[in-house]
Hints:
- By secondary structure, the chain is mainly alpha-helical.
- The chain contains 10 helices and 5 strands.
- Helix 1 crosses helix 2.
Amino acid sequence: MGSPASAWTIDRLAAHAGMTVRNVRAHAARGLLPPPRMQGRTGFYGAEHLARLELITHLQAEGFSLAAIERLVDATPNQTAERALSQYLEMLTPWQAEPPVDMPREEFASWVGVHPPHHEMLTEAGLVEDLGDGSIRVHSPGMVRAGAEAVRLGMPLDALLETRRMVLEQVTEVAENFVDLFRRTVWQDFVADGLPADRFADISDVVAKLQPVAAQTVMSAFRETMPRAVGDLVREASRVLGEDGERS
């Protein structure tokens, strides 16, 4: 008969979580785990510690740093930190990235509609991943297809990939500003009130609606600035044509 879930040593907890004891100790040292139940000089861990470790692993897989997870735990009362983390993950659901598409490598050219399909450049950019069995995984398939359309319009792929890199940097800053605004206002008030369960649906609704608001803001800004950029191009072409006419 196995030991009860409330009486695991740190070694057993680590084994259940699929971690090393060193990692578990590191999480505990950062305050990410509640203290164990002590019997003499031995600490015993329970199901709540395992759930916390599994949640930390999940958050890290979603791209959260340990420092970010630590800040979230510190920002909540100890008795609600676990619930806060779970809710935070749940609220990310509307913001999940576009799922990748797996396909045989030889089908990629017809799928993307570009010949040659530029596997190497796209792999270098992290948009295509070789799965090693004759298959590939296309990350951000919508972006890849948009890039393919731009290539068909005559734009070189290397320049498009550089533009993508710059756009991602700028959009990342925009996203961080929106999230920080949410954190400093709606989320901070929710945490200060003790994360009341009857308001969680409202908070989740705000997060879900923030996505189209942010997207519309970015698109509106683009529509406002793009005509000016195109206008500059037209004026530049007009000046060149005028100068050529004067010289002829």
